[in-house]
Automatic annotation (TrEMBL):
Enzyme category, top tier: ligase
Annotated GO MF terms: UDP-N-acetylmuramoylalanine-D-glutamate ligase activity
Record domain Mur ligase C-terminal: where: 312-425
Protein name in the entry: UDP-N-acetylmuramoylalanine--D-glutamate ligase
Native source organism of the sequence: Gracilibacillus salinarum
PANTHER family referenced in this protein's UniProt entry, alphabetically: UDP-N-ACETYLMURAMOYLALANINE--D-GLUTAMATE LIGASE (PTHR43692)
Catalytic activity, as annotated: UDP-N-acetyl-alpha-D-muramoyl-L-alanine + D-glutamate + ATP = UDP-N-acetyl-alpha-D-muramoyl-L-alanyl-D-glutamate + ADP + phosphate + H(+)
Length: 448
């Protein structure tokens, strides 16, 4: 088991419990670091609270007393906790470092890290890269926003093992020394502005992924994205572009119906199993990383020829009497749903709706030409109804449950249609997670 090296903080406040907070509290305790834990919403009888208290770690739940900042020299916060939080504001006033748990990777001496970020496509790209490493028999572990606590993974990694880590803007805001050997910037669109407030702040958070890189490191970036092209200009690392639109002299790109890296043909696009034109960008990014790591074309071909997607991201569920049902519950913004709609030429029955973040859905309208019916739910159902009417969608239904939504979608559909859950909204108005929402869809499809 790896140990923290030269960790500069002696007593740390863990703000926010859940999976990552619990793991970090235990990890720091094992490494002799003083820890206190504070969480507003977790109840006293929660199992995580009991486990941490059994270790002799102080835990305060149900309130945010400012006294928890006494005698601490750093705060490690849950990425989702906003900087307007009363304790975070007070910690900043005290000039305390505000970190997220991925910063701990730097203190484990893990230098073989591939970090992936972007507004959309992170999970698909991260999983593709991991599958390529695994098929090439390169020792690697998944970590980060994909569901595995990064510092916990780092603690158990073997020598020469690589970490493939999905990174959100929330996580990246809380790093100081963290540095991936290969950083991947997929795209940048207006997202999470309720957290970051401006696109500039959001962009700066994403740019943190390469701020510590040197010329020995690599930055794989989307050359089709104007904001990304501007962002990477000050990077010290070796730039490796990818493009779906332009034929490059370096990096990964498309030409004559095939994927190329530099001047070398990697494989034909027709042989790729993953549906959706937007996924080509994720594939190009993964190919660029694989080629940097010396992975063979045969290995890349084997993975791309069989990989059909990750759970809740344009995941094929079942064919029901000629209708193809897809679960895209991870589409929590307009861009993701737009890309999902563009993946199909067949008529679509769209299931959408969820948390109202204050935005309208006008940007979805140009992508709805093949939507013949909509089944809507959640806080945004009326807003999505307006968008559907503006797009001349033939039939629009509003329901309250996912089972109703699937049944209505089936009734509106015909043989050859696509039944697509792609909500364009976060799930938190009705579900704890987008996974729970997607699983409800899958269960309801199976009931058909």
């Amino acid at each position: 088991m790896n140990e923290l090296k030269a960790f500069p903080y002696q007593r740390v406040l863990i703000l926010g419990l859940a999976k990552s907070g619990t793991a970090v509290a235990k990890l720091l305790h094992r490494n002799g670091i003083g820890v206190i834990v504070n969480d507003l919403k977790t109840p006293e009888d929660d199992d995580n609270v009991r486990q941490i208290r059994d270790l002799g770690i102080g835990v305060i739940v149900g309130e945010h007393p400012l006294s928890v900042l006494d005698d601490v020299d750093a705060v490690i916060k849950n990425p989702g906790i906003p900087y307007e939080n009363v304790l975070i504001k007070e910690a900043l006033h005290k000039d305390l470092p505000i970190l997220t748990e991925i910063e701990l990777i730097a203190y484990f001496g893990i230098d073989q890290v591939v970090g992936i970020t972007g507004s959309n496509g992170k999970t698909t790209t991260t999983t593709l890269i991991y599958e390529m490493f695994k098929r090439a028999e390169l020792p690697a572990s998944l970590a980060g926003n994909i569901g595995h606590v990064a510092s916990e993974v780092a603690e158990g990694m073997e020598e020469n093992e690589k970490m493939i880590i999905e990174l959100s803007s929330f996580q990246l805001l809380g790093v100081d020394r963290f540095k991936p050997r290969i950083a991947v910037l997929l795209n940048l669109f207006e997202a999470h502005l309720d957290y970051h407030h401006t696109i500039e702040h959001y962009q700066n958070a994403k740019a943190t992924i390469f701020k510590n890189q040197t010329e020995q490191d690599y930055l794989v970036y989307n050359a089709d994205d104007p904001r990304i092209k501007q962002m990477v200009k000050p990077a010290a690392s070796t730039l490796v572009p990818f493009s779906r639109e332009a034929q490059l002299t370096t990096g990964a790109y498309c030409k004559d119906g095939a994927i190329y890296f530099k001047q070398e043909k990697v494989m034909d696009i027709d042989a790729i199993a993953l549906v959706g034109a937007h996924n080509l960008e994720n594939i190009l990014a993964a190919v660029a990383v694989a080629k940097i790591e010396g992975i063979s074309n045969l290995t890349i071909q084997a993975v791309l020829g069989s990989f059909t997607g990750v759970s809740h991201r344009l995941q094929f569920v079942e064919e029901v009497n000629g209708r193809l049902c897809y679960n895209d519950s991870k589409a929590t913004n307009i861009l993701a749903t737009s890309k999902a709609l563009n993946a199909f030429s067949q008529p679509v029955i769209l299931l959408a709706g969820g948390l109202d973040r204050g935005n309208e859905f006008d940007e979805l309208i140009p992508h709805m030409s093949n939507v013949k019916g909509m089944v809507l739910f959640g806080e945004t159902s009326e807003k999505l109804t307006r968008a559907g009417k503006a797009a001349d969608v033939e039939q629009i239904q509003i329901v309250t449950t996912m089972e109703e939504a699937v049944q209505q979608a089936y009734q509106l559909s015909e043989k050859g249609d696509i039944i697509l859950l792609s909500p364009a909204c976060a799930s938190w108005d009705q579900y704890k997670t987008f996974e729970e929402r997607g699983n409800m869809f899958i269960d309801s499809v199976h009931k058909l």
